[in-house]
């Protein structure tokens, strides 16, 4: 980040609404850039619900840049992506990650969501590290924001003023409504039940030890159907996190919240009579069986107004099928950290947020669309989209498929430099276009800048 200040740089008092993964990430990024950050959490503690969460190289790089102690998150470093036959369990398509770190500079981590959150929270709040430690305030539910004055009114009667307000309050964002964005959304065509399986329990029963694969594994998803099982190992392989997708007509959970009473195991198994016997036996010992609401949101038209912006699911909810939700929130946080650092920020918050929207919206919209396609065709998923020699390979449009190069060769510093130059009427001379090197040929045949 450096220490030389641009004329006009000033330390901001930042209010972050929502203390999840996105909220903690942006607190770290803005703390590192020299600002004072207060995180407001609506509940009486800041935590996360759910199980596994993917963090590919485009997310992991920022954790390292910010000095996050990644080992605290007890991740599994993924070695491959495996798509298996629905009935037999035999591999259909494998994408090796053996050279992943060498190619992209960072590993592909799989975290348990609660562990990842604790890791980020520690980094945001601890005394150690660059910048003033962020403050966490609980039991503060956002009720309204005066966008002109930069004041937040909370349900407990407290009102506060901030120079910059970041709405990272998730899929049901209150800040989004204040900004005048009212989502066109509809229930997804698929439903999802989640279950955890302890590796130790599976091994005791003589079942396959999937933790040894260190892989993100999928059953199904090849036939244009909604039936798909996704397995992600976390907690160093001690826990296997299963996401089980099936047509909504077999069970509609679109209005049910995570964290209620566990569903019975019979309900989890019912949609999958012909599933591979090994993974079915795993699901039969599943615990903490919970419904996951799936709603499709059309892209939002903007991500900020005045000095208030959106981040993560509040600004661009997406289906989980590219495993990029957390990474996109981390990238949002990184963008704000760069824009408000001592090189780029000249004192005009609205100018930087305008560039934030111009940098982030095209990228997140692209991933949103690709995630929706991958919901029913696993060949559209990053990684598998490179396996064109598979007999069952088929994508909607080869030129439009999302590639791993787009995600990991992306240079956010260059993207921001380009947009800031435009905003300030300056010439941009680097040979990059929207953060990708001009001349880079993607596996789908697209050449950047051609």
From TrEMBL:
Full protein name:
FAD-binding domain-containing protein
PANTHER family this protein is in?
Answer: HYDROXYLASE, PUTATIVE (AFU_ORTHOLOGUE AFUA_1G12410)-RELATED, MONOOXYGENASE
* UniProt cross-references to InterPro entries, sorted A to Z: FAD-bd, FAD-dep_Monooxygenase_BioMet, FAD/NAD-bd_sf
- Annotated keywords: FAD, Flavoprotein, Monooxygenase, Oxidoreductase
Database matches in Gene3D superfamilies: FAD/NAD(P)-binding domain (3.50.50.60)
Give the record's family classification. Answer: Belongs to the paxM FAD-dependent monooxygenase family.
Report domain FAD-binding positions: 13-368
What GO molecular function terms would the record report? FAD binding; monooxygenase activity
From what superkingdom does this record's organism come?
Eukaryota
Q: Does the keyword Oxidoreductase apply?
A: yes
């Amino acid at each position: 980040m450096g220490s030389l200040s641009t004329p006009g740089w000033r330390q901001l008092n930042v209010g972050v609404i929502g203390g999840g993964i996105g909220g903690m990430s942006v607190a770290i990024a803005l703390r590192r850039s020299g600002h004072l950050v207060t995180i407001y959490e609506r509940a009486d503690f800041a935590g996360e619900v759910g199980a596994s969460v993917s963090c590919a190289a485009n997310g992991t790089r920022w954790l390292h840049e910010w000095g996050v102690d990644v080992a605290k998150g007890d991740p599994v470093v993924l070695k491959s992506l495996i798509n298996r036959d629905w009935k037999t369990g035999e591999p259909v398509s494998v994408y090796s990650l053996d050279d992943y770190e060498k190619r992209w500079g960072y590993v592909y981590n799989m975290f348990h969501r609660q562990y990842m959150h604790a890791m980020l929270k520690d980094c945001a709040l601890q005394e150690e590290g660059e910048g003033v430690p962020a403050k966490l305030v609980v039991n503060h539910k956002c009720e309204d924001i005066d966008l002109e004055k930069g004041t937040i009114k909370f349900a407990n009667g407290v009102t506060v003023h901030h120079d910059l307000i970041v709405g990272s309050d998730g899929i049901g964002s209150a800040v989004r409504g204040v900004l005048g964005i009212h989502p066109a959304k509809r229930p997804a065509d698929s439903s999802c039940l989640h279950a955890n399986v302890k590796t130790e329990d599976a091994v005791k029963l003589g079942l396959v030890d999937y933790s040894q694969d260190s892989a993100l594994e999928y059953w199904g998803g090849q036939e244009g159907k909604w039936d798909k099982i996704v397995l992600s190992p976390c907690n160093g392989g001690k826990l296997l996190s299963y996401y089980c997708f099936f047509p909504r007509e077999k069970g509609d959970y679109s209005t049910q919240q995570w964290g209620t009473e566990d569903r019975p195991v019979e309900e989890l198994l019912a949609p999958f009579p012909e599933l591979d016997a090994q993974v079915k036996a795993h699901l039969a010992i599943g615990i903490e069986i919970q419904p996951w609401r799936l709603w499709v949101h059309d892209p939002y038209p903007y991500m900020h107004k005045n000095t208030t912006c959106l981040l993560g699911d509040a600004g661009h909810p997406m289906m989980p099928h590219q495993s990029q939700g957390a990474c996109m929130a981390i990238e949002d946080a990184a963008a704000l950290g760069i824009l408000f650092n001592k090189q780029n920020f000249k004192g005009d918050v609205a100018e930087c947020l305008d560039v934030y929207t111009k940098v982030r919206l095209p990228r997140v919209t692209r991933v949103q669309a690709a995630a929706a396609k991958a919901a029913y065709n696993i060949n559209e998923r990053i990684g598998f989209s490179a396996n064109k020699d598979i007999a069952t390979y088929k994508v909607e449009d080869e030129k439009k498929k999302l590639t791993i190069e787009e995600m990991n060769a992306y240079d956010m510093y260059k993207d921001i430099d380009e947009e800031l130059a435009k905003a300030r009427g300056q010439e941009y001379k680097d040979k990059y276009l929207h953060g990708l090197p001009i001349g880079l040929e993607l596996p789908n045949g697209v050449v950047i800048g051609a």
